[in-house]
Every structure is written in structure tokens, then in C-alpha cells.
């Protein structure tokens, strides 16, 4: 009987690995200019992605049935998503709140390792093949140069995807050969600057600064560092909201202008949406035909509402606390850097673009024991 259960568990694990890997690949391809110009292909890929998401719900349910706590969290999450659908008309946050249940099935940090290779294959197909079919470049008059898309639907998408791969490579560096590691660095740094995406460039720099602070200056030995790390999601969200209100009151203040420059001049639009739609418990459906709401935390508050936003911030803080608990500091710099990216970009809260959100799964009961972390390591297979 036990042998049969082990075989079933292994099959479910392999099933989830393939579903997630293919899902990541499809997500990358969907963000290309070629697919954007061919709606029929976009519809096919979108349908395939939905099928894969439904298939991965098998793993979500298996993971949730491990304990009453996991099942209770899942039931609460599904209830909130249904309320979000009824009130705001969308369930855009379902992947971020549900795919974390796959972490105990696939393993930690193996799931990030899987995401890296799946994302890299998609990235390679785009910049090598699909770039020849269609791309989207933008002329930047500020620097008198072109922002290159290299096959993606926007140069900023190229920058974001390159930044994520760069962070995954550095975070999981001990699992790669030195040829892959240095080859990746030498390849992606030029791509990052080809995109001329300010957010991706300074996001990568902040990531490296946190590595310097925690690893080489060893600030993690201080207890106050732990508190700072855990509270950082809340601090970042409060800062974003304060400046949105401040912009309305005094847009010419030196600090407001500096923050607007830091967020690539997106504070103005964030403040516009913030005061036009306000915030509610379950969010609003907003009109983005004329303007786009990029500011991450304001996007969360306005489109998802207070409850989902608070849940997201609590998950983020608990995940950082768990990373400290299991002494997995290598992921902390990426998690903190993405919080800064959230001041400017909404994709920081989207698990399809920010795979580090998969570590939300560390709040599940399977990770209460350090033994599970060790058994879930990449080196196991």
C-alpha cells in the first residue's frame, strides 16, 4: 500500500513539473510582438494556459490536503477570489495565490530552478527566432537611442524578463556550473541595457546592493535586519500610498518630484487613478484605454482591493520570515529588490513575471520542519 502511494506521489510530482514548465514557456511566448499581431495564436496560447492552470489545480488540492491549516488557507483564498470576481469582475490574482501550493509538490528551491530553465528556453526562442518575425522597438529621445524589444511586445518586457533571469541565475548560482553562470551574466547584462528599461536596470542594481549588504557586509547577523526585512513589504506599500496622496497635494515638492523620477514618472498616473477610483474592500474595474496604471502597490489597492492587498503583504512578510528561519538568505535580496520594483511596476505581484512569489508556499505546513527543506533540494535528483 505504501509503495503504491509513493508511486502515485511520484507521478503527481512529475505531472506538476511538466505542467508548470510548459506554463512558464507559454507565458513567455504570449508576451511577444508576433503573438500580439496574431490574435488567433494569442487565443490558442491563452486557451492552453488555462488548461495547464486547471491541470495544476490537482497538485494544489493534494498539497492543501496535507493538513487542516493548508486546507483552511485554500478555502479562504478561493472564497476571496470568488468575491473578487463577483464585486470587481476579475480573478487576476488567482495564479499568485494558488500556484504557491505547488512548492511542496515540486520542491524548494527546485521549483525556482525549474522556472529558470523553462523561462530561459522561452526567452531563447523569442530573441533568436520570433525576433526575426516581429519585434517592438521604441525610440527614446531622452538618450537619443532606441529601446530594443528583441521579439517581445515592449522593450520593458525584455528588460523585466532579463532582470528576472539574472536574479534567478545569481540566486541559484551554486546549482549551475561556472560556464553557465558566467555565460549567463555576460549575455544578459548587454540585453538588459539594450532594453534601456530603467526599472529593470535599477532593480538589478538594488538586487546586487542587497547581496553586498547581506553576504559581504554580513548585516544579516544583526537582529534588527530581520525585523527590517520582514516589515519591508508593509513599508514599501505605505510609502507608495503616501506619495500618491502627496502628489495630489503638492506635485512640485522636491521629494515628490524625486520619487516620481525614481518610478520612471509613473507617480502622476498612479495618483490620478488613486483619486479617481479610490480603494475598496474588493477592488474596482478600471478603464486603461487612455492611461495605464503601472505603479505596483496602487495597482494592487485599486484593482484588487484592501483585503487581497493585505493578504498579499502578509504572505510576503511571512515568506521573508520563513526564508530567515530556514537560513535561505540567498533569495531574500531578490524578494526585497522586487518590492522596490513594485514602486514602479505592477508585475512585481504577478507570479508569472515574478517567480520568487512561489516561495509564498513556505507558509504551508510541509515546510514547518527543516528536514523537508533539505529533502526538497535540487541535489536530490
What is the distance, rounded to the nearest whole angstrom, between the alpha carbons of the first and last residues? 24 Å
Describe the global form: globular
Largest sheet: 2 strands, antiparallel
Number of strands: 2
Biggest sheet, strands in spatial order?
Answer: 1-2
C-alpha Rg, in Å?
21 Å
Mean pLDDT: 84
Q: Write the H/E string, N to C.
A: HHHHHHHEEHHHHHHHHH
Strand content: under 5%
Tally of DSSP helical segments: 16
Low-confidence blocks of residues: none
Total domains:
1
Describe the overall structure:
With 381 residues, the chain is mostly helical. It has one domain. The protein is built from 16 helices and two strands. The protein has helices at 2-30, 33-37, 39-64, 68-88, 94-98, 103-106, 110-128, 155-171, 178-195, 198-216, 223-249, 254-262, 267-277, 296-325, 332-341, 370-375; strands at 138-140, 145-147. The chain has a two-stranded antiparallel sheet. The longest helix is centred in the last third of the chain and has 30 residues, at 296-325. 43% of the residues are buried.
Amino acid at each position: 500500500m505504501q509503495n503504491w502511494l509513493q508511486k502515485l506521489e511520484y507521478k503527481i510530482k512529475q505531472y506538476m513539473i511538466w505542467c508548470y514548465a510548459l506554463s512558464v514557456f507559454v507565458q513567455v511566448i504570449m508576451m511577444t510582438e508576433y503573438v500580439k499581431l496574431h490574435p488567433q495564436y494569442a487565443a490558442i496560447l491563452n486557451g492552453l494556459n488555462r488548461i495547464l492552470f486547471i491541470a495544476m489545480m490537482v497538485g494544489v488540492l493534494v498539497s492543501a490536503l496535507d493538513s487542516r491549516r493548508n486546507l483552511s488557507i485554500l478555502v479562504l483564498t478561493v472564497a476571496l477570489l470568488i468575491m473578487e470576481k463577483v464585486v470587481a469582475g476579475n480573478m487576476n490574482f488567482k495564479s499568485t495565490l494558488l500556484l504557491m501550493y505547488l512548492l511542496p509538490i515540486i520542491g524548494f528551491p527546485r521549483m525556482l530552478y525549474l522556472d529558470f530553465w523553462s523561462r530561459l528556453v522561452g526567452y531563447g526562442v523569442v530573441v533568436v527566432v520570433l525576433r526575426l518575425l516581429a519585434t517592438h522597438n521604441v525610440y527614446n529621445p531622452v538618450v537619443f537611442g532606441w529601446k530594443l524589444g528583441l521579439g517581445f511586445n515592449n522593450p520593458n518586457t525584455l528588460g523585466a524578463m532579463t532582470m528576472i533571469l539574472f536574479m534567478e541565475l545569481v540566486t541559484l548560482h551554486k546549482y549551475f556550473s561556472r560556464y553557465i553562470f558566467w555565460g549567463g551574466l555576460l549575455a544578459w547584462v548587454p540585453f538588459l541595457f539594450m532594453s534601456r528599461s530603467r526599472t529593470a536596470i535599477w532593480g538589478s542594481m538594488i538586487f546586487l546592493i542587497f547581496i553586498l549588504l547581506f553576504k559581504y557586509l554580513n548585516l544579516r547577523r544583526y537582529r534588527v535586519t530581520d525585523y527590517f526585512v520582514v516589515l519591508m513589504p508593509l513599508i514599501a506599500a505605505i510609502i507608495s500610498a503616501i506619495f500618491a496622496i502627496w502628489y495630489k497635494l503638492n506635485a512640485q515638492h522636491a521629494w515628490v518630484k524625486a520619487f516620481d523620477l525614481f518610478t520612471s514618472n509613473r507617480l502622476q498616473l498612479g495618483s490620478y487613478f488613486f483619486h479617481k477610483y479610490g480603494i475598496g474592500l474588493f477592488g474596482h474595474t478600471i478603464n486603461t484605454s487612455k492611461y495605464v496604471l503601472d505603479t505596483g502597490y496602487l495597482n494592487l489597492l485599486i484593482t484588487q482591493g484592501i483585503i487581497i492587498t493585505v493578504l498579499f503583504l502578509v504572505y510576503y512578510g511571512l515568506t521573508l520570515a520563513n526564508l530567515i528561519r530556514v537560513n535561505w538568505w540567498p533569495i531574500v535580496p531578490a524578494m526585497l529588490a522586487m518590492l522596490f520594483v513594485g514602486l514602479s511596476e505592477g508585475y512585481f505581484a504577478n507570479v508569472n513575471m515574478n517567480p520568487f512569489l512561489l516561495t509564498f508556499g513556505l507558509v504551508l505546513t510541509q515546510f514547518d520542519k527543516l528536514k523537508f527543506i533539505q529533502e526538497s533540494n535540487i541535489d536530490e535528483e
